[in-house]
Amino acid sequence: MAHPDLATRKAKRSTGRPDAPGPGLRVLLTTGASDAHTWNLVHLQLFLEEAGHSVLNLGPCVPERLLVDTVELTRPDLIVFSSVNGHGHLDGLRAAHALDANPLTRGIPKVIGGRLGITAGEGEAERRTALLAAGFDEVHPDGAGPEPLLGRLAALAGAADARLAA
Q1: Cα 38 from Cα 58, distance rounded (Å)
Q2: Are 84 and 37 in contact (CB under 8 A)?
Q3: What is the DSSP-derived secondary structure letter of residue 24?
Q4: φ, ψ for residue 94 (rounded to 5)?
Q5: Residue 9 contacts by C-beta under 8 Å, 6 or more apart in sequence?
């Protein structure tokens, strides 16, 4: 469920880039408290900005309290949770529970992807099920291309456009 401010903010916002594909969405990019990797976050930030979106990158080792406080303050259109260290499943569960415990951050869409477990393939279905049950809208395994993320962003932008047209 998209949060109610999306259409209003999308209508008012512009990326300021003449080559951008229209007004972009606001994306909060994060990782878990145990993940110290930064290259994945920088890569995703550049990719999302090239696609015309505004990105706030919280950097590595993000504690749940910082994530919740930042989401509450910035009200992004989408939270993108990326993991490289293999503990994304555990960090993601804690983050989803913390976000859903706060009524101001509960309805904001969130996706997670990357190396979510320490063993490739083993337990992947169980991790995916648990993360979806915890509140993630989409779960993307390590090696997934950019298409699912771009699809989610397009769907959010399309929903905002439909609300504006109504």
Answers
A1: 10
A2: yes
A3: P
A4: -65, -40
A5: 26, 75, 77
Query: What tens digit of pLDDT does each residue of 75-95 get?
Result: 999 999 999 998 899 999 999
Strands 110-114 vs 26-30: parallel, antiparallel or unpaired: unpaired
Overall residue count recorded for the chain in this entry: 166
- In angstroms, the CA 22 to CA 27 distance is 15
Which among 76, 70, 86, 72 has a CA at the least distance from the CA of 48? 76
Q: How many helices (H) and strands (E) does the chain have?
A: 6, 5
State if pTM tops 0.85: no
Query: The tokens of 144 are what?
Result: 């997934």
- The Cα–Cα gap between 158 and 128 comes to 26
At 3, list the tokens: 């949060």
Distances (CA, A) of 54 to 10, 48, 85: 11, 8, 26
Say if domain 25-165 classifies as CATH 3.30.420.40.
no
Q: How many CB atoms lie within 10 A of CB 153?
A: 22
